């Protein structure tokens, strides 16, 4: 009979903080695959470290992940600058618990992750650690290996930048869910009149095909244009798949209600939404690049709090 493997204290310590490490890495990178790689690299560094010298495993591991993620951000910046069409984060499935906390849900929303893309790697790391995880400036300074003064300055710049580009509305989560469900039904039935009611007058649709599948290379703007786009979804062949072979489901994506489109053998796309103060849909993020759909396809739900 096989003996059960003994789990050492170093593994236990790492597993205790693994969820936190992934949560930090994902918000820094906007990619579940890259975040998993960074967490794995952090495990290798943790395994090789002299842990007798580590007074605070949480701070030590956060520092490793933050530095690895910042390095990766710097190395991938050119890829994102030369990306075909709009670059959107890699969507992940989340649970209703994430959506229950408005601040936590917002911190992993597509809309905020898109804004974080416009920050420098250092500003992004400082913003995430301070605003999302409530680390002190001293803790962040140690994590990103900068002076506390430099960290405070980076935090100020990042906060101003995010506030200017990401207005915060007090979102009614039940209303968001209701609007998403009605949008889902209206899209399925080609009901353009209902779609016009649910969309903000200056609604914007961002589509990310990454040059791998056919998508709009520029944002689609305006109530009637976006409404017609979605009203036609149930009547057109997409990626070689007939409408009758496609199915759509409502689920939780990046902390809010979203839609997953599936073909017979693969996930085709995801939709996530941002809402205006009246509760209408103001922004739609449509990710269809197959390279970015693995985390949704494997069905894993991430707890990112």
From TrEMBL:
Gene3D superfamilies: 1.10.1740.10, 3.10.450.50, Winged helix-like DNA-binding domain superfamily/Winged helix DNA-binding domain. One of its GO terms (biological process) is DNA-templated transcription initiation. Residues 14-77 form the RNA polymerase sigma-70 region domain. The keyword Transcription regulation applies. GO terms for molecular function: DNA binding; sigma factor activity. It comes from the Bacteria. Residues 110-161 form the RNA polymerase sigma factor 70 region 4 type domain. The keyword Transcription applies. Keywords: Sigma factor, Transcription, Transcription regulation. It holds the Pfam family Sigma70_r4_2. Interacts transiently with the RNA polymerase catalytic core formed by RpoA, RpoB, RpoC and RpoZ (2 alpha, 1 beta, 1 beta' and 1 omega subunit) to form the RNA polymerase holoenzyme that can initiate transcription. PANTHER family: ECF RNA POLYMERASE SIGMA FACTOR SIGJ, SIGMA 19 FACTOR. Belongs to the sigma-70 factor family. ECF subfamily. This is RNA polymerase sigma-70 factor.
